Amino acid sequence: MNDDTVRLATIGRIFRRRWRLLAALTLLGALVGYGISLLTPPKYTTSTSVLLPGAWEERELLTQAQLATSSAVVDRAAAKLDWSGVGGKELRGRVSAKAANANVVKISGTADTPERAQRLSDEVARQFIAFGERIAGDSTASGPESLRKKVEQTNRRITELANATDPGKTVESVQARTRLEELRTALEEAMTKLNESDPAANKASMVVMGAAAKPTTEAPPTRTQLVGGGALLFFLSAVIGHLAATRASRRLRTEAEIATALGSTLLGSVDVPGERPGEKPQDQSPRARIRRLLDLDTRWDVPPLRTSGGEESRRIRYGRVCARIRDRLPGSRRLLVVVPEGDEVARRAAGQLVVEAEGDPSPSSSSRGYPMLRVVDVSVHRPMVPDRGQESGVLVVLSAGSWTAAELAGIAGACADGRHEVVGIVLAGAVRARPAGPADPPPDAGDPPDDGTLAFAVHSHGTGGSP
């Protein structure tokens, strides 16, 4: 797992080196969004506001909003609309209501045409008011109305009692008539207060605040939103996928990790000029062309190429590596150079090492001369190294950040199976060639070529044998 922090430079490198792939995936996402918009018919939404006069608490308004979308209201609206194939169950998913400020319930309807959306909102609002009035009427008939009838009967009874009282002017008759009139007055005041506090009388008169407006635009998500959302989703998925892949990468990048995986010592690092366009033979198969078109044949997570120090600097590095090999194995005349198959930078570096070893400055000295190098490519999936012949060991040449610990351990195990000891490791890194100037004269005919050709390297994919 790579725990490096994701920096803006990393995202910028993704944009620079994978912009074709990102553009292709963004276009694909836009096409997917467009296809979804073709499969999903357009929707139109409009709203109707219903005013509830009187004093209402917040929870009462929420109850009224739920009542507006209940099956009792929506089913009646569906029966009135009588749309073919559309019943109350379907309409319940197209109707919504919410309690707004100032005792207003806002009812919204969604349909496939503006006209239907308008009719749906208006009809649901009418059925909501009718249902509310019906509930208010039922509560009035069963509650306060019956009480009013009882009060009227009591008033008539008081009148009868007052008429039946002795019309004389005795103290008792006057007191009785006075008490009956006080009772009648108290009942009338109680009924007045009851009428004023009756919630059904105050809250049943709901009104529609105008007809629903005919919608002129589609309800979200529109076709434009689906296309833009699909393009954005695919673009972000591609970027996040690149970041996740590099964080989950198990490729070894440091010298210590590589040396530990191979169980040997690092002898040095060498530079290889990066290939210029057109130098490397290109596969012309359709799949290879698509990979080149989308920049999939080059890695994006490698750091930018460093500027080369020049031909002389590179030759000094190769000479120092060969000198360390000579000092590590004095008197040795043969060495096997193992390169992971597919590591082009390492293969070119190994070829340059062969050229440097061929140009031994002291070939006559058996103890000071550079050993002869033989290069073999080894598959990291099924590593196989030739059996030991006259070689004194194995030199592994590879580039950093290309192989995992398991793959390098497999190469080390293959060397052990072939009875070879890994005597050293050489790391190869690609560099950007410095433009030629007056201080950098072109190499003469005797100098090794700048591109590190393998003209002198011997490649072997065999399973064993001596050189």
From TrEMBL:
<dbReference type="Pfam" id="PF02706">
    <property type="entry name" value="Wzz"/>
</dbReference>
<dbReference type="InterPro" id="IPR050445">
    <property type="entry name" value="Bact_polysacc_biosynth/exp"/>
</dbReference>
<keyword id="KW-0812">Transmembrane</keyword>
<feature type="transmembrane region" description="Helical">
    <location>
        <begin position="21"/>
        <end position="39"/>
    </location>
</feature>
<feature type="compositionally biased region" description="Basic and acidic residues">
    <location>
        <begin position="273"/>
        <end position="282"/>
    </location>
</feature>
<keyword id="KW-1003">Cell membrane</keyword>
<feature type="region of interest" description="Disordered">
    <location>
        <begin position="268"/>
        <end position="288"/>
    </location>
</feature>
<feature type="region of interest" description="Disordered">
    <location>
        <begin position="433"/>
        <end position="467"/>
    </location>
</feature>
<protein>
    <submittedName>
        <fullName>Polysaccharide biosynthesis protein</fullName>
    </submittedName>
</protein>
<dbReference type="GO" id="GO:0005886">
    <property type="term" value="C:plasma membrane"/>
</dbReference>
<keyword id="KW-1133">Transmembrane helix</keyword>
<comment type="similarity">
    <text>Belongs to the CpsC/CapA family.</text>
</comment>
<keyword id="KW-0472">Membrane</keyword>
<feature type="domain" description="Polysaccharide chain length determinant N-terminal">
    <location>
        <begin position="8"/>
        <end position="70"/>
    </location>
</feature>
<dbReference type="InterPro" id="IPR003856">
    <property type="entry name" value="LPS_length_determ_N"/>
</dbReference>
